[in-house]
Specification:
The complex is a heterodimer. By secondary structure, chain A is of the alpha+beta class. Chain A has 12 helices and 20 strands. The N terminus of chain A is likely disordered. In chain B, the strands form 8 sheets. In chain B, strands 13, 14, 15, 18, 21, 22, 29, 32 and 33 form a 9-stranded mixed sheet that branches. A 6-stranded mixed sheet of chain B has the order 3-2-1-4-11-12. Chain B contains 16 helices and 33 strands. Classes of the chains: A alpha+beta, B alpha+beta. Chains A and B meet through α1, α6, α7, α8 and α10 of A and α3, α7, β20 and α12 of B.
Chain lengths: 561, 671
Amino acid sequence: MDARAAGANPITTEILRNAFISIAEDMNAALIRSAYSPLIYEGKDCAVALLDQDGEVLGQSLGVPLFLGNLSLCVQTTAQMFGWDYFQEGDVIFLNDSYIAGTHLNDITVIQPIFWNGQRVGFASSRAHWMDVGGKDTSLSIDSTEIYQEGMRWAPTKVYARGEPRTEILDFLRRNSRFGGILIGDLHAQIAAGQTGEQRLRSLLDRFGLETVLAAKADIFAQSERMEREAVAAIPDGRYEAEGFLDNDGFSDDPVPVKLTVVVEGETVSLDLEGSAPQTRGSVNCGFTQTISAARLAFKLLINPARPVDGGTFHTLKVDAPLNSIFNAQEPAACAWYFSSLGLLIDLFLKAMAPAMPEHVAAAHYGDSMVISLNGIDARTDERYVVVEATTGGWGAWSSGDGQDSLINEVNGGFRDLPIEIFEHKYPARILKYGIRTDSGGAGQYRGGNGTFRRYQLTNDANLSLWFERSVTPAWGLSGGEAGAGPEVTIQSLDGKEECLLKVNAKPLKAGTIITIETGGGGGYGPASARTAEAVRHDLLDRFITPKHAERVYGYLPQSG
Amino acid sequence: MTSYRVSADIGGTFTDFVFEDGAGGTRIGKVPTTPQNPSRGVLDGLAAGPCSLDEIDFFVHGTTVGLNAFLERRGARTLLLMTAGISDSYTIARGHRTQLYKLHYRKPKQLVPRRDVHEIRERLAWNGAVIEPLNEDDLQAVVETVKAEGVPAIAICFLHAFSSPAHEQRAKEVLSKALPGVSISLSSDIAREWREYERASSVVMDAYVAPVVELYLKTLRAELDEAGMGKTIHVMRSSGGVMTDKIARDQPISTLLSGPVGGAIGCAQLAKDTGRRNLLGVDMGGTSFDLTLIVEGEPQLSTETELEGLPLLMSVVDIHTIGTGGGSIAWIEAGGLRVGPKSAGSQPGPACYGRGGTEPTVTDANFFLGRLAANSLLGGRMSLDLNAAGAAVAKLARPLGISDIDLAEGILAISNAKMADAMRTITVEKGIDPRSFTLIAYGGAGPMNAAELAYELDIREIMIPRFPGTFSAWGMLRSDIRSDFSASFFVQAEQVDPQAMQSAFAALESQGRLLLEQERVPNERMIFARYADLRYVGQEYALSIPLGTDTGVAQVITAFHAAHERRFGHAQPQNPVEFVNLRLAAIGELAPIRQSFVTAPQAGSAQIGDRNVIFAGQTVRAKIYSRALFTDQTRYFGPAVIEEESATTFVPPGYGFQLDDWGNIIIQKEA
């Protein structure tokens, strides 16, 4: 109460707090409702935020957790580049430069300043994944080595200036995408989302007045900050470290190290990525903005996960990454698969914090999106097709529970697997088997979740691309729990010859070829010897483990249960 | 002998009744629900009604028996049979997360554990062609298990069964011969639609609740027979129609969400009666808040819904539940005031119930501010405790440094704003602007907060129907007989053979006709409404487009583009379109019943007293009216409290109200 600013009362403050979150949800609904690309309206590969006049979050709504907090940073960076007066009433600004926005070029950030009575009072902002932004391959390249191969690159640019469309910019965008019409449609969906936010914020201001809204905002931020400071202060001070490796950068064969040091001191958490790999030739690099977002996501998993994010959040978190490293990449580093490094960063943060927050953390999960892509001509229709699938895997166990089997990775949001019935209708391939990979979860008092297997058989010739990760650093266990199994991909040709590989770009394969993908399991928690016979018996009944595994790992014989 | 039409809405706490005689007279009733054997409560309520059981000509009820069996996980142990090699689709459940920051995330718990999922060797191709024939030896193994372990229910979901149900049907034939008395459900009967996980989840739900629903319906039938009510029992469907108990036993899943649907049908009837096209129906009870939209006179139907995260492919009236109600608890976090999502429920309930609740709820705030009389619940059978409400409010006001009155009003303001926010988001998703809608408020707590809710949404007109506390039961009496059928019809729009489409519809229609004949619907009252599900190539979800018997393919496609424009704000006429499913609703129209508001002139005023009510920080003297005493269409003004048997309506200062020709209270803001 003492922190409360004059002019607001707890009731108005709470009404406005709920309203800000609700405005963000309305913006998200408007975006999803009017988007052209299924990636947005079905895959929910997007995020929106309502921001205050300084670019701080009032309310946000996310489809992709990895976008946490970076719309704010995009607005603030734009202001640093051009000054706050750059934003005029009726402007629509967009950007996708990986070194500014942080992610790959397909993610487009749109910013609309909101004015009320001639005064800039806030921003509506959104980010959405566009299907194609030019570049050497449709959608994402697996083997790009420079950003120029990945598509058009835009610094903050006005596509509407003072309410007037800049038709030459719109025309440029349309001409430089393989799906120009959809791209323009998605841009307008983002603008519609921003207009929804603008109208709603203005009507709140009409009703409550600027002074009350500002006072309530200060209260809301103060509440969030207070909750966060209390939670951080409760973490034992100390220096916490972890290190792991990506298999490679998709181009060379060398493992890519990720190293982090976390220092907790009173009410601050400092994360330093010193010791992580210099930016790589392959595309596992990202801009520093996105590194901050990933750190925030990792932090949020442990600190007040249920509390919505606003301008009072993340004041206790500091992030540093060396210039020209994979986490602070500079031109011309390729960034298409930026999220593989960030997924590892998040897992390592949890590992580092395990000694300090044993109840909150979990052992590592299978780690990456495990992408398989097929393209070619469907002989049934004579049409070109491309299918891109992410694959689920095992999650880590924690101090009181088993990890989940076959669940999508941390950095993904609204993902759902593609039903076999839809897959076989739409694409010239069959799915022979799909299931939970028995015995792949790390053993422990609490078992790591099992990974997933999926077996495809091509019915026409096709090109195969793969991006599988985490074989060098499979999901580790905690407190004596064991690591989960790593990923495996086997390609069996018609003559029965088998080939194992994890990453490949557009490999031509004959009809009849069988591809089996297996994703990793999650890490276990606590020593396997401490697992109850009852839990092992249930795992056997449900076939999550084989009798052999039960005996070898848990010393379990059928009569002992 | 007068003949009565009677409905019963069996809720979690109370069973509501509406009795209508043929002359326009309506009576309501409310008895405690008897969860152990809900038919007891039904009989109690009927016995307390204005008519003898043999005077009942038509009886319909909505039941939560199936839903409760699911919610409390009391359904039947079910074996799920799926195609060999892919049966984990069910356990994987598409692998998504619904809580993005939850490291210790758990998928929704499935009704069938993995140990009870059995693989059957068989395989169809995408177009229904047989790749591997059904292996009947595998079925024999299932027979052994079912016999040995006494399993009462089997669900079958084979891959691509929506293209060809032949293997599923053969499996059922084999199993039912070997296992008489075991309930067997087929995914191709529940939903002829693609997506194997969603279909498996749906057929499992059907099998899981089947024995419970069947037992309940049998018991009810037997007890009503014994009591002398020999007429057909009708059951409300989740899709908004009614069916006989016999059909309900074959399709137990379609009873699942039948409870709140009556309210939606009631709203649609009010739209028809009063000539309003667009209504927002809000049903506010103790723990939840249900929202229904009537757009252009029609309730909104979905072809898919979810219960506790488990998907169900079935036609269902779209009802959005928002977790705020009279029981929502106010609390303090980091120096800020919050309301909900935690609820006091019905046990202990709000502090003013005097059952041990000590935290202030929305109901406590309403009571504390004088909007609710101490004897206003359950027709005076329950008395509210003002001291308990006051103590709960004071407990929270003190640390916030505000007055008790400010806090109580604050609780209402926050909860109303939250509900309005949630309602606005739902309308934005559907591309609807609620400001031109009429708000219909019902349920025990709806009419109390209706005016303030409408204010938040910028809605100008509020309607409180007659008997708001039993409105869902009233709506059930307005329902047609209805059954929904679907067939997969997967083909690119330009390749549609109009002949094939016609014969597919004809096949659905003959199924529908058969069913309506079983319901003894005369030919002239049969309606067959056709729909086609279309989408742009590449989309996963489709839109249902209504069409007539002679609508051409080109017209359907044009209608699809227009519907896409309405729903999503844009259409792409240049993009290829595909057909996915054909649907048919077989409707048996009930004989129309003229319901008009008949008043017997009575002496005296409707005002029965006055009372202090606090509004906007001011104590105002509100007139208290008894709704039953309104006899004309005089215009009255707030502040006013209108009391009736099942609900209390609060009309704030600055609002006026009067009765319309149907007896609804229409509240409007004064200019």
